[in-house]
UniProtKB/TrEMBL annotation:
SUPFAM superfamilies: 2Fe-2S ferredoxin-like (SSF54292)
Name used for this protein in its record: 2Fe-2S ferredoxin
The keyword Plastid is assigned to this record: no
Domain of life: Bacteria
GO molecular function, one term: metal ion binding
Record keyword Iron-sulfur present: yes
PANTHER family per the UniProt record, alphabetical: FERREDOXIN-2, MITOCHONDRIAL, FERREDOXIN/ADRENODOXIN
Length: 104
């Protein structure tokens, strides 16, 4: 079981728990504002874009090459960007903080 905290664009903090699937699915199931998951998790929409808290990057690991290509199209991307459909929920994620990137 992993506890994952999302911080929305409006600075609302939502902590959810999960033990399977990917982080986007968990966010959508818990109505986290700003995470839409339009493509269903196949890394082709970027509506699940989050910025990993810099202190927690080791928990999520780095973006894959396909993910980075997708993120390059998003003006809001930075070195902490991940598409959260590409992050599997596991114990390793416990305590992670993810900021919804949104489209500013
Ligand atoms: S849900 Fe579409 S890229 Fe993650």
């Amino acid at each position: 079981m992993a506890k994952i905290t999302f911080i929305t664009i409006e600075n609302e903090e939502i902590t959810v728990e999960g033990d399977s699937g990917n982080v986007m699915e968990l966010a959508v199931a818990n109505n986290v504002a700003g995470i839409d998951g339009d493509c269903g998790g196949v890394c082709s929409c970027a509506t699940c874009h989050v910025h990993v808290d810099p202190a927690h990057v080791a928990k999520t690991g780095e973006a894959s090459e396909i993910e980075q290509d997708m993120l390059e199209l998003d003006d809001n991307a930075n070195e902490y960007s991940r598409l959260c459909c590409q992050i599997q929920v596991s114990e390793q994620l416990d305590g992670v903080i993810l900021r919804v990137a949104g489209d500013e």
